[in-house]
Amino acid sequence: MVIHALLAASLAFTALPAQAAAVDCARVKCLALTFDDGPGKYTPALLKTLSKAGAKATFFLVGKRVEERPEVARQIVARGHAIGNHTYSHASLPAHSDNEILDELKVTQEVIEDVTGRRPTMFRPPYGHTDERVLALAGQTELAQILWTHTTLDWSLRDTKKIKATVLKQAKRDGVILMHDVVPQTVQVMPEILKELKKRGYHLVTVPALLRGKGPTPGESYF
Ligand SMILES: [Zn+2]
To answer: How far is the CA of 70 from the centre of ligand 1 (A)?
Structure first.
């Protein structure tokens, strides 16, 4: 009895932080916001906005930008967001040789792990340019490929009202929305977007949370 009570108490104690982080997307309406091309100078403002709203997101980081802003990359991880590899130089991968592709992916893995202590398990191909060869090489690098269900084209809209309208129109259960934390208008309008999404009942989660333990698996492509 005593042992049982102690065990229950210790489980209750350890379960609290995990429960706060884990949302069951089988039971509630989930949406994954993803931000590519950072870390950039607007990323810290975005991190504050996400924390204030209790929202989690996924950041696909460019290796050379992690080297420029290591502190911001560490903040992303410290605040409980997921991170992925978005190559070292933001290269269009299918145009490159096997060795060049492996370099783009592996060097970024090393940079991100050195800086954050976390080795990515996901990658997103720049410009969405990918093929079977790229996917196989990602698999060799122990990476899953994460695409998206909707892209906002925020980099081309560059307008807070249009970006907000696009995200709200695209939002649907279990969706993955592609945005960029290097687009200032996206970061500016994010408080309004989060407020509306929460009003509509969405839980904003990371990509692994959305996959509900069924991934990411290296060499597989998602969304
Ligand atoms: Zn990109």
So the answer is: 18
Write down the H helix ranges in the chain.
2-21, 43-53, 63-68, 70-78, 98-116, 132-140, 154-157, 160-170, 184-199, 207-211
Backbone phi and psi for residue 177, each to the nearest 5 degrees, phi listed first: -105, 130
Stated pTM of the model? 0.90
Active-site hit among 150, 180, 181, 203? 180
Residue 114's identity, in one-letter code, is D
The span from the first CA to the last CA of the chain, in angstroms, equals 48
**Catalytic residue (one of 36, 37, 154, 181):** 36
List pLDDT tens digits, range 35-70. 999 999 999 999 999 999 999 999 999 999 999 999
Ligand 1 geometric centre to CA of 60 (Å): 8
Q: Is 174 one of the annotated active-site residues of the chain?
A: no
Ligand 1 centroid distance, CA of 173 (Å): 24
pLDDT in tens, 170-219: 999 999 999 999 999 999 999 999 999 999 999 999 999 999 988 899 99
Annotation says 90 is catalytic = no
For 16, list phi and psi in degrees, rounded to 5: -55, -55
Cα-to-centroid distance, 115 and ligand 1 (Å): 20
Mean confidence (pLDDT) of the chain: 92
